[in-house]
Every structure is written in C-alpha cells, then in structure tokens.
Amino acid sequence: MRRLAAALLVAGVAWSAEAARVRAVRTGGTPAPVPQAIPVYPEPAGCAVPPVFPGATCSEGSAAFAALRDNEVDAVVRAAAKALDVPMTIAVVDRAGRVLALAHKAGAGSATDDDLAVGVARTAAFFSHDMAPLSSRTVRFLSGVHFPPGITNTPSAALYGIENTNRGCDMNLDFVAGQCLPTARSVNGLPCDSTNASGCGPGIVTGKVFPNDADPSSVNAGGIPLYRVDANGGVVSNGKLVGAIGISGVGGDSQRAEFASVSGAFGSLVTGIAPVPFYPLPDPGNVFIDGVRLPFLGPDLRLTFANDGLPNGVRRLDGTSAGTDATLVYAIAPGFGGCAPNGYLVAPRASSVSALSAVDVDTIVQRAIATAKKTRAVIRLPLNSYARMVIAVADTDGTILALYRMPDATVFSVDVAVAKSRNVVYFSQHGIGSSVPAGTAVSNRTIAFGGQPTFPSGIDSHVFDPREGPWYQSLFVHDLANPCSQGTQPANPNQNGIVFFAGSTPLYRGSTLVGGLGVSGDGIEQDDYVSYYGAGELLPPQSIWADQIVVDGVRLPMFKFPRHPEGVTECGGQPCS
Known about the structure:
Layout: H1 17-20, E1 57-58, E2 65-66, H2 70-83, E3 89-94, E4 99-104, H3 111-127, H4 136-141, E5 224-232, E6 235-248, H5 254-265, E7 273-274, E8 288-289, E9 292-293, E10 303-305, E11 311-314, E12 329-332, E13 343-346, H6 358-372, E14 390-394, E15 400-405, H7 412-430, H8 444-449, H9 472-481, E16 504-509, E17 512-520, H10 524-535, E18 550-551, E19 554-555
Antiparallel strand pairs: 1-2, 3-4, 3-6, 4-12, 5-6, 5-7, 8-9, 10-11, 13-15, 14-15, 14-17, 16-17, 18-19
Helix pairs in contact: 2-5, 6-10
C-alpha cells in the first residue's frame, strides 16, 4: 500500500446556554432523532456578516463546493464512535474551525478533553489544503527542537513553537463584511485577549512536551482532515477541504485515536467525504522537506480498499475491539459547516500614525501575491505548484492595515501572519533584551533564532557547551504562559502572541519605520522570500539589519531563501494570474 503523507486554523466556538443543553442519545441499536441545532458563534468585533447556515457553498479559487452538512457530520462522528470500544470525545470542525459537533461516549466528557478534541481537529483543518492532507501527527513532526524529531545536533523543525499560535486571541481586526474568521477560543466561550486569557484555546495541538520538547516521540495524533471528493472507479479525486475530525480521551498508543479518526473520516464516504483529496496522491506521492518524507498516519495504520481499489477505511489495530454509538451523547448537535473566506479579509487602508497610504498598503500586498505565484511551494502536490499565502500589513501601533488570504491558503496562517506583522514592528522599535538594541530591524527569523532551548538552534552536544537562546525564557516561555502578549509590551488590543518561525520584515521609508509585513502559508524560506520581495523599496536599510549583530559569538539571521525559489509549472510555465 502506498503510505499517505503530507506537509504543512482558525476559529473558535462557544455555544449559548440553550444550545449547550441540546443532547442526542442513541440506544438499543435504534437511532434517536438527531437534533438539528445550530451552534451560536460569537464573531470578532467588526465582523458584520456571520457564516451562512445551513447549506453554505464555498470556493477556494476553483469550482464551488458544498460545505459539510449536518447528516455528514453525524455520520463521521458515529463511525468514529464505533471504531473503538473505549470512552472518547469526538469533535468535528469546518475549515475555518467552527465546531460543528462535539460528542462523548460513556466515560468521557471532561472540559480538557473537549478542548483537546476540538484543538486536534482544528490543527488538521487549519494546516491541510486542497493539494495535500495534513494531520496533527504531521504538524508534530514539523514543530520539534530537532528535525527530524529526536535526531540530535540538527536544527529545529520549520514550525518550532507553532503550538503558541492560534489560541483564540481577539486579533482586533476590522473585517470586510462577510469576510471574517471566528477565533480559536476554548469551547467554554470565555474571553481571550491581552487582559483575560480564561477563554483561550489550546492552540495548535501536537502533543509536544513543553517547554523544551523533552520527549520527541510524544504526539497527539487524533486530528484528520475531511474532504469533499469524487470517489468512484477506484480513485479519489477533486478533493475540497471542508473540515476535520479530532478525537481525545482514548489513552494508550496515539495510533488508537488516529485509527478512530480515520474510521470516522471514511464514515460518510457514501456522500463523498474522505480524509484525503486524492488517491493516489500526485507524484512523488508524499510531501518531502529537506529530503525527509512527512508522516500522515502512524506506522501501523494501513488502508483498506473496496473491490474496485477505492480506499474505504483502515485495518483494525491489534489489541483493539469495535465499539458502538449506543452511549453517544452530543454536547453540540451536528450542524452545517461554513466557508473560510479568501481575498481581502481586511481591506487596505491608510495609516493614521505613519506614512503608509492605502495605495502603499495595497501595492505591498499585490507584490507579495505576485511573488507567491512564482514561488515553488514545498507543501503542495504536484511538485512545482505555486505557494498560497496569507499576507498581513501592520501599522507602527500594531493596527492591521490589510489582511489577504490567497485562495486555498492554510487557515492557521491568518493568526500567524497577523502576529508576525506586529512582532517585527514592536521588536524593531524596542529591541530584544540587552542583545538587540532598539532601532535594529528585526525579523521573525531573528526572534526565533534566539528564542529556542538550544543556541545556536539544534546544537545540543556537550562538546559545544549547549545553552538556552538569549531570549528563550523572556520571550518563548513567557509567551507560552501568556497567549495574547508581546514580550514586555503593556497589554493592548493589538496583540495576538509571538511567532517563533520566519516569514516577515519590518517596513521602512528611508530610515523611518512605517510598518510590518507578515507572510505565512508555505515553508518558512518561501515565507521569507515572499516577505522580502513583497516589501520592495520599503525593506529596511541593510546597515540596521539584525544580522549585523553577534550574540555570544553567533551572528543573528535576518532572511533565508529557498535554494531554487522559482520555476512554477502549475500554469503551463506561464505566469499564474
């Protein structure tokens, strides 16, 4: 069997007291009626039009497709419940992270497990896209202190610290009507902002041991994407990402939760829902980063196939028994999914505190889009497809002047791009501790380099006197405990955490800081490349770049580009429009 793999969220939900009381129980082998309740989704300030329910029709730059339907959500949940004879919590979210169902089997149902199930589901939904599937296992593989995980004296993985993002901070965005994304808050529905973190979600859930990744084998593997597909003739094709399933509370081998999730993902195959957009995946059949194949499923999970060769499930894991949905109770009844908006989420506007005009802001975004369309993506199949990015421009006070999501860009990148654009502004203004003086042009690559448990990144041999990064404690560990903060900056609405991987640049007009540009959506070198060329003439003067500074004998980085960034063939070798 060809093992599925891929490489490289975000929205939260609270329900009203009325919706929270809705329950559905299946007993005695006879299905009870499933309540058709629609959860209440508190939207961020300025979001004038909530997602359309029921029966939303979405588009990610190509053919329109239907969002998840309530009966499909119910089928996915029940198939997962039947996969194992153990307690479990099951969540289904749409691509934007809205919780479409939350269910418990007998013996399950803690608040921690609720947030964990929703978190792993969001992780899969926010990192997957129409050109390759991504599981929570894949994201864990990309987030450790070393890459590959557990291999000493190798640099950190590209998404080190990703768990610190997408925790549901109110990003204080003035969304275009109908173009909002809800925040990834806890299902408790409480606030999540710079003054109150009681309702912040778990963020991107990978299972990493915090803060220093002490166990590289630790993983939460219950998050699996859901695609609307054409499934016939032994082939899965034309997949459109519509959401994900997440499972928690199973215990034991991480593959058990994964087995139940994949079983659930195939549970509505009759209506065209599957865990992969294509089967087989386009050549080379997997996504590779630095020559390393990224895992999608655990090593003991194998697909099963129909007589025509169509994948339709996974083989039962040794030592497990099938369960039932007889004790299944819905805390959130199955509902209809919505879409993840693309295009301008926040329309270009002029700065009120710097010299950027609305035309300047739009020009930056359009340059970044044009660069992305000629940049070869590392996380998309087939090879030589172009990168899809989320692009954010921040003012010098952290106000977001523009936010753009290219069609099919990863949804986790919205929170990340916004934070990056704010990070480079603040730390370029104020410096980083005693190592980087105020007025130094700092990128998120700079921030990441000194914010890890080893310095330089990945050097942990005792021969080289391993030590923590100079701002590992003051930035990374502090950010871990304070979701909506920005170092020592006093609390304000324009904070949604610090990103500890690359893809940004401060913006200068001459020697004057005028804003920040954050880019996210592909490999971090690709993000850097698009940031650099998106900034154009507003790049900082090289004389003040952070790479002019040496800390403990180590030069700090500013940018790093892919070896061969261009060469897109997706549009027949012509510029992609």
